[in-house]
UniProtKB/TrEMBL annotation:
<dbReference type="Pfam" id="PF06094">
    <property type="entry name" value="GGACT"/>
</dbReference>
<feature type="domain" description="Gamma-glutamylcyclotransferase AIG2-like">
    <location>
        <begin position="5"/>
        <end position="110"/>
    </location>
</feature>
<dbReference type="InterPro" id="IPR036568">
    <property type="entry name" value="GGCT-like_sf"/>
</dbReference>
<dbReference type="GO" id="GO:0016740">
    <property type="term" value="F:transferase activity"/>
</dbReference>
<keyword id="KW-0808">Transferase</keyword>
<dbReference type="InterPro" id="IPR013024">
    <property type="entry name" value="GGCT-like"/>
</dbReference>
<protein>
    <submittedName>
        <fullName>Gamma-glutamylcyclotransferase</fullName>
    </submittedName>
</protein>
<dbReference type="InterPro" id="IPR009288">
    <property type="entry name" value="AIG2-like_dom"/>
</dbReference>
Length: 112
């Protein structure tokens, strides 16, 4: 059974996909409503090596319809979803949301 994962940041990078999933992902652009972006400093050495970025974007809920985040919904396997959980730092938690297209997907948002 397929899982769907929305990315608005480093999971869209080819290098991160290859190191996290062992393949390049296919996806469709979509928009998440009711969230805004902030940034978080990454200290995990493996994540830093894969992303080559010290600061990553992080979704913060606002519940305002005017706040949106553009990104891509990728179709992945359950094993790949668990690999994404390992990649994401402890600052993130995974939640299921509905997107502008009407599709549902997992998304990593602030754990705080």
């Amino acid at each position: 059974m397929a899982e769907y994962l929305f990315s608005y940041g480093t999971l869209q990078k080819d290098k991160v996909q290859l190191e996290t999933f062992g393949r390049l992902l296919k996806g469709e652009k979509d928009v998440l409503t009711g969230y805004t972006l902030s940034s978080v400093e990454i200290t995990d050495a493996e994540v830093l090596a894969a992303s080559e970025q010290q600061f990553h974007l992080i979704a913060i809920p606002t519940e305002a319809d005017t706040d949106t985040i553009e990104g891509v919904i990728f179709e992945i396997t359950m094993e790949e979803l668990l690999a994404a959980d390992e990649y994401e730092a402890e600052d993130y938690k995974r939640v299921k949301e509905k997107f502008k297209s009407g599709n549902e997907a997992w998304v990593y948002v602030t754990a705080g």
